[in-house]
Amino acid sequence: RAKLVYITPSHQFPYGMVLPIQKRLKLLEWASREKAYIIEDDYDSEFRYQGRPIPSLKALDKKENVIYLGTFSKSFLPGARLSYIVLPSKLADEFQEKLGRYSQSASPIIQKAMFLFRKEGFFERHIRKMKKVYQEKHKTLISAIKTHFGNAVESSAKKRGSIF
């Protein structure tokens, strides 16, 4: 009987697992059938170190049942605390009407700078660069754990087919 689900499909807590495409599609079917909404908190999907990227629920959503939340805190400016929401069109007008005058805590200067940064393509270049840096750090960490601990430790990533 639920009418709302909150999920972090790109990085599920506490193990960091990714929700497979089949389960994403089942969740979308449920939302459509039940006339429910899914709040997709996609706070760090830019950084995936193995396997092919899986589309967000919002990207797969044909019936407009997904409310998408994102942030630039993990990928760019942690101190700015800049986030965003992508609403289904049927909720956008009501949101604007009821919360349009809500006081925004993010600096308008930071918002404008991020807009221009994305518009000019710099954000995508930054993400590509940081993916390489973080992927190398990830490999180094995995290698160090394997070297120093051997079989004495097991990663939750191993259970889902990771590199250790």
Q: Calculate Rg over CA atoms.
A: 19 Å
Task: Provide the β-strand percentage band.
Answer: 5-15%
Helix content: 40-55%
> Order of strands across the widest beta sheet?
1-2-3-4
Largest sheet: 4 strands, mixed
Counted by DSSP, the helix tally is: 6
Structural class: alpha/beta
Taking pLDDT < 50 over at least 5 consecutive residues as the criterion, the unreliable ranges are 158-164
Query: What separation lies between the terminal Cα atoms?
Result: 41 Å
The quaternary structure here is single chain
Helix and strand sequence: EHEHEEHHHH
- What is the global morphology? globular
Chain-wise SSE layout:
Layout: E1 4-7, H1 21-34, E2 37-41, H2 57-60, E3 66-71, E4 83-86, H3 89-99, H4 108-119, H5 122-149, H6 156-159
Parallel strand pairs: 1-2, 2-3
Antiparallel strand pairs: 3-4
Question: What is the gist of this entry?
Answer:
The protein is α/β, with parallel strands linked by helices and 164 residues long. Helices cover 45% and strands 12% of the residues. The model is unreliable at 158-164 (pLDDT under 50).
Task: Considering the chains and any ligands shown, give keywords for the structure.
single chain, 164 residues, alpha/beta, 12% strand
